[in-house]
Amino acid sequence: MAAMTDEELARRLRLFSRFYELAGLPAATMDQIVADKSPIELKRGMKSLLGDIVEMSWEFDARACDKLDAILRSEGFPGLRQLQFEQSGRIRRLLEKGKINREADAIILNTMIVAGVFSDEDMLKADLLINDFGDRAVARQKRTRPPRNGAISAKK
Q: Cα separation of 129 and 61, whole Å?
């Protein structure tokens, strides 16, 4: 991050400003972020600010994410899902862990697959994780189903 040029800093500030605008956040928010900050302080805060944007974006519904993603990409910025993937330790941890236990994690991985953000290798890993999660969920459901048609349990 220390090697960020002034040009890159200005580009990231435009990205953040545009994101805040598209997300419907108050315009003053960006002014408050950059107010009275030196270029060095701004460069140091970029990683944190990007993390905040990614964290906020997990709360958006799929349509809002798609819209923001398309607009940002059309304006030459990285798409929202690309930012989510690059900045999210959560996704990286899921891929490294090799197992998912929550439906929300399966949904996030599937969203990233559909968005085309993963490399081929990561896409394959994510797909395998989702399938494994689905298989385990089906197996759990079979174990907990009550007997059908009034069948009598073998337990005495």
A: 23
